[in-house]
Amino acid sequence: MNKETLILAIETSCDETSVSVIKDGNTILSNIVLSQIESHKRFGGVVPEVASRHHVEGITTTIDEALISANKTMHDIDAIAVTQGPGLIGALLIGINAAKALAFAYDKPLIPVHHIAGHIYANHLEEPLTFPLIALIVSGGHTELVYMKSHMHFEVIGETRDDAVGEAYDKVARTIDLPYPGGPQIDKLAQQGQDTYDFPRVWLEKDSYDFSFSGLKSAVINKLHNLRQKNETIVKENVATSFQNSVVDVLSTKAMNACKAYNVNRLIVAGGVASNKGLRQRLQHLCEANNIHLSIPSPKLCTDNAAMIGAAAYYYYQAGVTAHLDLNGENNMDIEEATIDA
Ligand code: KG4
Ligand code: ZN
Q1: How far is the C-alpha of 325 from the C-alpha of 83, rounded, in Å?
Q2: How far does residue 138's CA lie from ligand 1's centre (Å)?
Q3: Which atom of ligand 1 is nearest to the CA of 87?
Q4: Is 47 assigned to a binding site?
Q5: What pTM was estimated for this model as a whole?
Q6: CA distance 239 to 225
Q7: CA 7 – CA 79 distance, rounded (Å)
């Protein structure tokens, strides 16, 4: 029997310090996530310098905790994986330097992982990926439709031309005085309201899989401004429902159109916004009606975590893709760059 492959993965691209030990790319032995949300809340968003400082403070204890909780030592580990980008450069560098130090000190291979590839592979931790598939990526920094013909093969077929969907959620939340991060708050309120504000759906050109959320965001802000000027009551629940309906209509319609056009019967969803209840319900309904197998990770694997980085890293490890100790962080990286050429 082949020996199991153990990867220690590190993720520090934004505001979670996370370390995980993953067996054979699909089994979580530990997944420690140290969230900084409470620190950033008072600023209404992530402050890069504050994020870097928290990563520095938390990284070594998080590594220790991940090993202890997996009941492993560094000698059991086969490779060290780390998020190379995209993300906040100062935050990424904390994880990358910790990973390099471990790789050097214990003489282990270093595996650089694309953050969005990680989000996609979060699905693989709960149910093996099957191909071809369409991945709908919806996070704080990204909104993309990706076609995958096989493991680690990413073809972007559509992407946002302006704001990412999570960013639009957070900005709209701020305009109705909800705390950061606004996405989950809007989602909660949206369950209690009605679609009364008639916000636009931005479809772009016929057959385009691109997205645009800045017009919707401006429409919400303008509407609220007008209501405030006229001293009319703003029903936050209805704003949330109307906004969420517009977002969910566009995301789910384009994802279903992509599945049909590419003749794919597997849809996966990835990224922080994948935990959105409205989106999950709508996609479940549409996929059932169209015979498409849908996978969405459990909410704790939708937001940033190192387990997903370890899951993606396994395929790089198998393909022998490793980095030298001069690895640098990349704040901007295209998901197509993460493709492993067969
Ligand atoms: O993937 P993620 O944890 O970080 C990035 O890589 O960007 O995504 C964070 C984003 C935030 O914008 C947050 O507001 C949003 O995901 N989010 C949600 C929900 N939960 C998190 N947006 C809508 N509904 C939710 N339930
Ligand atoms: Zn993320």
Answers
A1: 14
A2: 8
A3: 6
A4: no
A5: 0.95
A6: 13
A7: 5
Look up tokens 């935990």; give the residue: 275
Task: Among 46, 120, 139, 180, name the best residue to mutate to test ligand 1's pocket (greatest count of ligand atoms within 8 A of Cβ).
Answer: 139
E-assigned strands of 133-181? 133-138, 143-148, 155-159
Strand, helix or coil for residue 115:
helix
Tokens of 103: 């790789």
First to last CA, the chain: 26
Residue with tokens 């704001």: 163
* Sequence-separated (6 or more) residues with CB below 8 Å from residue 206: none
Q: Counting atoms of ligand 1 from 1, which one is nearest the CA of 140?
A: 7
Pocket of ligand 1 (CB under 6 A): 14, 139-141, 166, 169-170, 181-184, 187, 271-273, 275-276, 303-304
pLDDT in tens, the chain (342 residues): 568 999 999 999 988 999 999 999 999 999 999 988 888 888 888 889 888 999 999 999 999 999 999 999 999 999 999 999 999 999 999 999 999 999 999 999 999 999 999 999 999 999 999 999 999 999 999 999 999 999 999 999 999 999 999 999 999 999 999 988 899 999 999 999 999 999 999 999 988 999 999 999 999 999 999 999 999 999 999 999 999 999 999 999 999 999 999 999 999 999 999 999 999 999 999 999 999 999 999 999 999 999 999 999 999 999 999 999 999 999 999 999 999 986
Please tell me whether 170 is known to bind a ligand.
yes
Distance CA 294, CA 301 (A): 16
Coil, strand or helix: which one is 337? helix
Is the distance from CB of 136 to CB of 267 less than 8 angstroms? Answer: yes
Q: How far is CA 188 from the centre of its chain?
A: 20
**Whose Cα sits closest to atom 22 in ligand 1?**
183
The answer to whether 304 is annotated as binding is yes
Q: 75-106 burial, b if ≥16 CB within 10 A, otherwise e?
A: eebebbbbbbbbbbbbbbbbbbbbbbebbeee
Classify 210 as helix, strand or coil.
coil
Q: Is 3 helix (H, G, I), strand (E, B) or coil?
A: coil
